[in-house]
């Protein structure tokens, strides 16, 4: 396998999506991603297979770039040993990010340290800033009063242990 990676700037409208990409992108996601790309620029190139000529990663970024009327995007053309490796890369790129857990309470505690920023540029869906008086200053943890316990399922999501929440 060729390990040399070359980045080229190309018109996103010339890129071919993989017909086997199992990831779907909503219009809402594409529009938000376009805003983020216009603000941040491209931080990760789109990856295209030298074997098939199709996008392996970056389908959403390609659609967002087209939506934002960008005429050039960074593309990394890469070799894959075979179709199995190319396909597993397509799937893994989409799936592995779902393993992570985003700590929204940590983001809430860090927002006051940022300058003026549109929180939509974080890419979070349905995110609301919590008032700082609900956080413990020493630990950064959200402090709940007794009335808020009723919103929880009263079971541990990892082990299934059930408790009454009080």
Give the key terms.
single chain; 166 residues; alpha+beta; Conserved hypothetical protein from pyrococcus furiosus pfu- 392566-001, ParB domain; 4 helices
Structure description:
The protein has helices at residues 27-40, 59-67, 83-95, 104-110; strands spanning 6-10, 46-49, 55-57, 73-78. It has a four-stranded mixed beta sheet. Residues 148-154 have low confidence and may be disordered. It starts with 5 loop residues before the first strand and ends in a 56-residue tail after the last helix. The chain has 166 residues and is an alpha+beta fold. The longest helix is centred in the N-terminal third of the chain and has 14 residues, at 27-40. 14% of the residues are buried. The chain folds into two domains: 6-99, Alpha-Beta Complex (Conserved hypothetical protein from pyrococcus furiosus pfu- 392566-001, ParB domain), CATH 3.90.1530.10; 104-151, no CATH class.
């Amino acid at each position: 396998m060729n390990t040399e990676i070359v980045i080229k700037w190309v018109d996103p409208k010339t890129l071919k999506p993989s017909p086997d990409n199992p990831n779907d992108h909503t219009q809402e996601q594409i529009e938000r991603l376009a805003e983020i790309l216009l603000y941040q620029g491209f931080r990760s190139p789109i990856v295209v297979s030298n074997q098939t000529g199709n996008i392996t990663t970056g389908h959403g970024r390609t659609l967002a770039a087209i939506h934002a009327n960008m005429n050039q995007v960074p593309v990394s053309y890469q070799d894959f040993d075979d179709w199995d490796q190319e396909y597993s890369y397509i799937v893994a790129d989409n799936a592995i990010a779902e393993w992570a857990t985003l700590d929204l309470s940590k983001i809430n505690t860090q927002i006051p340290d940022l300058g003026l920023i549109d929180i939509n540029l974080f890419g979070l869906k349905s995110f609301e800033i919590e008032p700082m008086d609900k956080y413990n200053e020493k630990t950064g943890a959200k402090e709940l009063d007794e009335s808020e316990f009723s919103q929880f399922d009263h079971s541990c999501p990892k082990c299934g242990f059930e408790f009454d929440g009080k």
